Amino acid sequence: MDFVSVALPALGDAASLILQPIVLGYLVLGVVMGLCIGVFPGLGGIAGLSLLLPFMFGMDPVLGLALMIGMVAVVPTSDTFASVLMGIPGSSASQATVLDGFPMAKKGEAARALSAAFASSLFGGLVGAAFLTVFILVARPIVLEFRTPELLMITIFGLSMVGILAGRVALKGIAAAGLGMMIGTIGEGDSAGELRMATYDMPYLVDGLKLVIVGLGIFAIPEIVALLRQDRAIADRKPLGGGWLSGVRDWFANIWLSVRCSIIGVVVGVIPGLGGSVVDWIAYGHSVQTTKDKSKFGSGEIRGVIGPESSNNAKEGGGLVPTLLFGIPGSGSMAIFIGAIALLGSGNIEVGPSMLKNNLDITYAIVWLLALANVVGTLICIAASGGIARLTTIPFALLAPFLFMIISFAAFQSGQDIMDLVALFAIGFLGIMMRRFDWSRPAFLIGFVLSNPAETYANQAVQIAQSRFRKGFDEGIDYIFSPIVIILVIITLISVVVGLRQAKTIMAEGAVESGSKRAPLIFLLVILGYLGIAFTNAAMIPDYAAADRVFPRFVAGVAIVACVILLVQMMLRAETHALFADRESSEAEMNAHGLWTTLAWFAALLLLTFLLGFILALALFLFAFIKFRAGRSYGFSALYTAAGIAFMCFMAGLLNRDFPPGLLQSYADLPWPLS
Amino acid sequence: MTETNTTRRVAMSLVAAAAATFATNVSAGGHGIDLEGKTVEWVIPFSETGGSAKWANFYAPLLSEALPGNPTVVVKFMPGAGSTKGANWFQEQEYDDGTLIFGSSGSTQFPYLLGDPRVRYEYSDWNVVLASGTGGVAYLPPDLAQKMDGLDASALRDTDFIYGSQGATRLDLVPLLAWEMLGLNVEPVFGIKGRGDGRLMFERGEANIDYQTSSSFLKGVTPLVEAGTAVPMMSWGALDADGNIVRDPTFPDMPTFKEICEATEGCETSGEQWDAWKAFFVAGFPAQKMVFLPAGASNDAMVTYTKAFEDIKARDDFADISAGRLGKYPQMTGAKADGALKSATQVPDAAKEFVVNWLSERYGVTLN
To answer: How many whole angstroms from its chain centre is CA B172?
Structure first.
């Protein structure tokens, strides 16, 4: 009866909410932006949404949602261009597409691969939207029963996924997630306001690190730096070739694979925190397992494109489930999405159970927008494929400073503090090292994203439970072990066991060869050192603020144990073991530039910003980079710099933002945007 | 007794000054400043989601219309360390051409009053041009509200209350101390991000007592009251011209905490505890949000801004547009704002000492 009386009218209301020309206009705008973000390697949903975030304030909710959903939904469609044409994943969700999509492009079958991918993406996106619709209908009455212990269990369930992400060495995954959680606890504790790994002398740390910065630092920067080092000139552009229709026929011939992989995408998306980084690998693994003739995989098997592409669009629908229903982010970009929703309109839409209660029409508007954005995105991708494909022929050395500029600007939006750039650089460096030594970056980000909910819910559940137990034993037990909690515990246990068993076959970031012993050992010791300091720091929190002490101490303790076991293993094992994975050795022949010289460019930008302020530093950086690293003429470099600075000023002007000032600005009064 | 006197003296000065508003500030300056073609930056030391953002966004377009030369008024957010970061930053700014203003809130006032070591700002250096008041309402689930015998809350003493709190040193100090004075056994569950989370906890049945500021109550709790799942317990009240606590004009049908306290045995509306509560209530609610010009502002600038806010208040539609977004509370300018600033930032030492001791004994919070 709930279905007929509440849900159906809400579905209708939602449809009329979005079927207005202006809403559709914003949706298309979002889709176009998402296309660009997806095409550029290194940028994904996190970067895109964090650029949109400042515009959301006070925006009409439906318009803002149209913009954001349009962008998020289409990234997994458009990232296929880079994967197929360049052999570089356009975002983390289409890494597996590269394996068979790129060989197809080399054989002159790019159009066939792309059209099969778009058909799969569209189908997956629609499956995701349909699933979300049904799930909201079914789950709504259950979700409205959720209280703190249930929310805590959902969070723990998300954390348990670390097992599946860990790859070949499970302990590394646990240590990475633990490190992510510890980074998440930096700053003022939520319960008693004690500082963790921060001092009042550095106000920036007191508030903790922002997700935008950690997300961009851990994923975008390592990708950009890695690509920049390879300095691939993509001059050998091949024609897209014909065969658009044959790609669609390929998809139709494999429709059941597409259905299964879409369902995989939805299910993986639903799991809090897991997000897109593994879904394509799971789907790819499934495609390989279910194909009789496995010989063509890796050299241009169309099923290797259809599987991942079906799943990575479907996961957006799945990812919205925990996000909308519980207010627990389904992925890094969903965490930013939650923050953005709070800014919309007069700020009265709260993600979580209350949204299902009070804003059911808005909830369903999101579903409709998601479906619509997938359709629009696919149409644009096919219609404009020639033009978009040309974007991928830009040499990366020209693209990288631009991407880096956008990322810096996005990072700087979060705190409007020069320290944002320092933090971005520091986390970026950590990301580069984690990528190099094959420590799971998705596990790290899950830890970071779920750190705060895990701590808060745990503290609150314990405190409320204590009060209930004082009233009576039965009441306390009823509170902690509700049927929902028990079901969630069982699901979590199953997922840990299955995850660990499957982990060996899923390599979230591709295979990595082992190198020498020394470098991985040093990295482990540094991590262990930080965890040790963080543990000691947490242990020093006095008793009256014990609520802020328990969580970091526990997490750091677990992570330290994992690291120590790793250390012992490292001493015992030969250096060919997966423990000593080191990308520097496997990518050595591909890298045209050294790591440190590449990093020095960005360090120089940071240093110059401290001296001259962001805009002057950026101008120098862009000019010098294009002139010397990319080797272009003075005229071209000047033009590039002017365009970049104009773009920054346009964005900042739109938002009424100042840029970070440097030492120079404290002596001289300069006009905006130099001020 | 001294603290009572101080409170009363402050309130009296507030009234006396109000009468003199027009006579002194507005006419004294003469010409004022012209802001044509300029951009006024209004810095809010909170994020875009909070109540201060809503308040500033309500005023910003009106201020743009009312200032001479119709400058663009932009609201800038500088969140961090519970507003201490933004306030410390503002302390370092010097008056330039009147294009910088700052909006503070109760969360800026309380750390200042309690001597938080992070506070490096000094209210008396700044120049107040507007003070906006608000109120607060505590509410209960219906089954517990039934236990109250009229205004007498003593029947609630055997209940274990759970309250979702942002921290005992924040504005939550006012409700926590009030409930303690009534003899209620309220256990705060810390770690919520905003009062909205507290309400959600109440809605989920995990918290069984809560309070919201007036605008949040109107928006978030009124639907619950209509649905029968929440019953208002009391408002904090409002200050009349003599500094007495009277019924909140936004909620005239609700008893104030003072009335409940008087009707409940063991709760005193005089003495050290009451004076401390009242002092912090006065600091936190009747002048919760203020607009400042930086240190060294010229008299011309003060006159210009005061006049602008007075013009806004004098708009024919001000009552209509403000009631829904700010509630029916005084929007004070001129000497009245000065008085409000004093009452909000000069808490008697005895009251401060009492609260600091209470915080450390009851919650183990030390501020140094």
So the answer is: 11
Helix or strand (DSSP H, E) at B10: helix B2-21
Q: Whole-number mean pLDDT of chain A?
A: 84
What are the angstrom distances between the C-alpha of A372 and each of A196, A466, A511, A666, B109? Answer: 45, 48, 36, 50, 48
Q: What residue in B sits closest to A476 (Cα-Cα)? A: B206
Domain range summary for chain B, segments of one domain joined by +: 2-133+287-350, 136-283
End-to-end CA distance of chain B: 28
Buried b or exposed e, range B20-43, using 16+ CB within 10 angstroms: ebeeebbeebeebbebeebebbbb
Rounded CA-CA distance A162/A275 in Å is 12
Chain A residues close to B81, C-beta within 8 Å:
188, 203, 206-207
What CA–CA distance (Å, rounded) separates B96 from B103?
A: 17
8 Å CB contact of B81 and A353: no
**Cβ neighbours, 10 Å, residue A650:** 10
| Per-residue confidence (pLDDT) for residue A4, from 0 to 100 | 65
Beta-carbon count within 10 A of A583 CB? 21
What confidence score (pLDDT) does residue B19 get? 43
Q: pLDDT value at position B27?
A: 40
Instruction: Provide, as residue numbers in chain B, all residues whose Cβ is less than 8 Å from the Cβ of A656.
Output: 39, 74, 76
Q: Is A529 exposed, middle or buried (0-12, 13-18, 19+ CB in 10 A)?
A: exposed
Tell me the three state secondary structure of residue B210.
strand
The one-character DSSP state at B256 is B
Q: What is the rounded distance in angstroms from the CA atom of residue B233 to the CA atom of residue B222?
A: 13
- Segment A168-182 shows an average pLDDT of 88
Q: Rounded CA gap, A153 and A489, in Å? A: 7
pLDDT band at B14 (very low <50, low <70, confident <90, very high): very low
The domain B2-133+287-350 belongs to what CATH superfamily? Bordetella uptake gene, domain 1 (3.40.190.150)
pLDDT band at A48, cuts 50/70/90? confident
CA dihedral B69, B75, B81, B85 (to 10 degrees): -30
Dist CA A389 CA A237 (whole Å):
10
Which residues does chain B have within 8 Å of residue A456's beta carbon, measured at their own beta carbons?
191-192
Closest CA to B93 of B267, B350, B293: B293
Q: What is the pLDDT of residues A580-614, one digit of tens each?
A: 888 877 677 677 788 888 889 999 999 999 999 88
CATH number belonging to the domain at B136-283, selected among 3.30.450.40, 3.40.190.10, 3.90.1150.10, 3.30.9.30: 3.40.190.10
* Of B27, B32, B28, B21, nearest in space to B304 by CA: B32
Give the pLDDT of residue A607. Answer: 93
CB A133 within 8 A of CB A325: no
Domains B2-133+287-350 and B136-283 share a fold: yes
Instruction: Give the closest-approach CA distance of A53 to chain B in angstroms.
Output: 11
Tokens representing residue B181 in the block: 């004075």
| pLDDT of the residue at B211 | 93
Report whether pLDDT(A669) > 90: no
Question: Which residues on chain B are in Cβ contact (under 8 Å) with A346?
Answer: 54
Q: Output the pLDDT for position B20.
A: 43
Residue of A185, A464, A470 best to disrupt the B interface, most CBs of B under 10 A: A464
